[in-house]
Design goal:
GO terms for molecular function: kinase activity. This protein is of the alpha/beta class. It is built from nine helices and five strands; from the N terminus they run E-H-E-H-H-H-E-H-E-H-H-H-E-H.
């Protein structure tokens, strides 16, 4: 059993790593889906209220709330799969929740990319609302994520993938990690 947790700032490549896993038939549990579902349950727009609802869930149910809501989904996937990828870890408390649940079977991978490159990617992606449309700036998103404890979570990573090359190169790296484990990567 291996649970690969992905951590990184917005636009670093977390979703792309999840896409690679899905293409390899590795189940993906996306923690952001928990938040997006809660937005809809509260009658809010996930594109503009994602951050507000993420803060509210943690305030109402504790800093591990989103990880705890993700655990049953991960455990269900592990019943029929050897590997599950968890996309969107945001804090050290969430890392500790997964370490406690999965022990040595949990591998935390940081995906890193420079600010300017992340900003370009997010602009191209077009999934997020712009500041003009009521969304957050990347600087504000980074600050919010770090406020959850993301910096501490990234510091806890077992390995870091620098996502500064081509998309194809990044995809190859993620495939190698999933197929052969972290020891197969030149670090």
């Amino acid at each position: 059993m291996t649970v690969i947790g992905i951590v990184g700032l917005p636009g670093s490549g977390k979703s792309e790593a999840a896409n690679v896993a899905a293409e390899m038939d590795v189940p993906v549990v996306t923690m952001g889906d928990v938040i997006r579902e809660e937005c809809r349950d509260r009658g809010l727009d996930p594109a503009t209220d994602h951050g507000t609802v993420a803060k509210a869930l943690r305030a109402e149910n504790g800093p591990a709330a989103i990880a705890e809501r993700s655990l049953p989904m991960i455990e269900a996937e592990l019943e029929s799969n050897d590997t599950v990828l968890v996309d969107g870890i945001r804090s050290d408390v969430e890392v500790e929740t997964f370490e406690s649940a999965f022990g040595d079977g949990f591998l935390l991978v940081e995906i890193d990319a420079p600010f300017e490159l992340r900003a370009e990617r997010l602009d191209i992606r077009g999934r997020d609302s712009s500041v003009e449309d009521g969304g957050e700036s990347l600087e504000d998103r980074d600050a919010r994520e770090r406020g959850f404890g993301m910096g501490e979570a990234m510091d806890m990573a077992d390995l870091t993938i620098e996502n500064t090359e081509t998309l194809a190169a990044f995809q190859r790296t993620v495939r190698t990690l999933i197929r052969n484990g972290p020891e197969a990567l030149d670090q």
